[in-house]
Amino acid sequence: MAAVFGALVIWLALLGPVIALLTHLSGSAVVSALTGPGDLDPLVTSLASGAVALAVLLVFCTPLAWMLARGTLPFPRVWEAGVLCSLLLPPLVVGLLLIFFVGPYTPLGQLLNATPWHLSATNTFLALVIAEVYESAPYYVVGAQAAFADVDQRVEEQAAMLGDRPLRVFRRVTLPLAAPSLGVALSVAWARAMGAFGAVIIIAYHPYGLPLQIWLTQQETGLPSALPYALVLLVVALPLPLAAFTWSAHARRRRRG
Amino acid sequence: MLDADVEVDRREFTVTAAVHVAPGERLALFGPSGAGKTTILEAIAGLVRPARGRVELSGRVLTSTEPPKIHVPPWQRRVGLLRQNPALFPHLSVRDNLRYAWHPARSGRSPAELPQVAAALGISGLLPAMPAGLSGGQAHRVALGRLLLARCDALLLDEPYTGLDASLRRSLTELVAGLVQERSVSAVLVAHELMEAQAFASRLAILDRGSVLQIGAPDEVVLGPASRRVAELVGYQGFVPPPGQVEDGTIVGIHPERVVAGGQRGRGVVLTGIVSACRPAGAGWEADLAIGAATITCRLPERPPVPGGEMVVTAVDPPWFGPSGTAVTPPGAASAAGGPAGQDQVAR
């Protein structure tokens, strides 16, 4: 009984801020905040950079997670420590260090500038993507590693014995079996990328995404005028995770027959 | 035809085996756990690389450690492997599991094959079900059907029915044996229960610590073990010097199920001992008999004397072993049976 009560208290406490947001918002305030010219730019920036960051995670972090789960990398502890390190670093510190890693006066920065497009990894869309990747990648890698580790290797072995090459086994067995948990990991990473702020404010002050917009509005015109952007951020950050969790639960139910 | 002659190095010993299994033939590898039975299957399946050796299946060389070195990957071997875990694909229905490696359009096979195999296995009603909803026996039938539809040239069964109840195990074993014969597949079963190996096999190989000790027809191996170690592995529980002989280290092996009460000199070796323990076993009794320094166990249909009493039993046609532990011909039977007959290979 006490446990249920405790659970209820913490649940309400966790949801409290969302409830507060909804009670302090009026429809007219949202409309007036979002209908001016350029008011939707931060939303577009956030969605676009988040989508690119997610694509980068999918392409580069999925193989890493798979190799970590299968233990095929030499010195697996070292690789895991690296992922953990980026998970544990405070985002603000990550932003600061990124300046010294990819900033305009670093070898990497100069290399970017030497490309035909004169890229820069500070205060550009690229910088925003980089900051979001740093803030979201470890969440995806850790989640995807667990997703792959859950796939029974005896089932993969059976697929191979039935004539499938490793890549085909991955496509026909490993991926479908890991997909529900991969989806959850990806959606957590999406929420992290959407809300990325610490690293973003240091290396990607421009162009504004939603988190920075909230912070700036709050600085310039006060707390209440930042609330509509908070709502917008919630609305774009939440659907993917919710869909992933629902689908994941559905897939598990279906497998149970 | 499956021809495997492999040596696989393991930490404690090297597994050495030469097995030749004709299409439709069923070989059982029997031995204690850790004897290297599974290792042999994995070498045939391509899951472990032998240190030395050669594997050939239906004229294709799958493994060769002599130049030209060959190691065909598992997915190109057309070898079916069934383990204790049926490893059905949990995200696919029974029908899609069966269809996983079955491509009737590409290989010119009849689309009626799937329903036929499902009917033969008694799983027609389960096709829309998901694997998680199946019982252990049903899951094994589906796994077997999946292998049959994949058209493997060899079928490797690695203690597949461990954990299922005895009657189910028996019926599945007989089902596989029938299908293997019907489809002329070379089949190898790894078993650590003799009854299961006997129910399945047309030939039986006894393995211990990585070596094949004896290969032959199941009853030849069980009734005429080539060495004391083989006898121990197939269930002979007592070894006593035959009475009335000069004590030269010769012993006879006593199997609990091949002992009858009373002295019947014409049927085997008559032994006299003191009953040291007696307990009910199934519908009969099991008694321990102290004969000199040795103890034998025998199963009897009638209640033996109470412990402490003397009892005379006859070990029916027991195998004789010389001082070195290898089988010897019993005196007086030299011309008749000629000792353990029909052995392909005798080691140690």
Count of DSSP helices of chain A? Answer: 13
- Low-confidence segments of chain B, given as residue ranges, are 334-348
Q: What order do the SSEs of chain B take from the amino end to the carboxyl end, as H and E?
A: EEEHEEEEHHHHEHEHEEHHEEEEEEEEEE
User: For the largest interface in this structure, which chains are involved and how many residues does each contribute?
Assistant: A-B, 23 and 29 residues
Largest sheet data of chain A: none
Strand fraction of chain A: under 5%
Average pLDDT score of chain A: 90
CATH superfamily of the largest domain in chain B: P-loop containing nucleotide triphosphate hydrolases
Quantity of strands of chain B, as a count? 21
The helix content of chain A, as a percent range, equals over 70%
How many separate domains of chain B?
A: 2
Q: What is the SS-derived class of chain B? A: alpha+beta
CATH architecture of chain A: Orthogonal Bundle
Which parts of chain A are unreliable, with pLDDT below 50 for 5 consecutive residues or more?
none
CATH homologous superfamily label of chain A: MetI-like
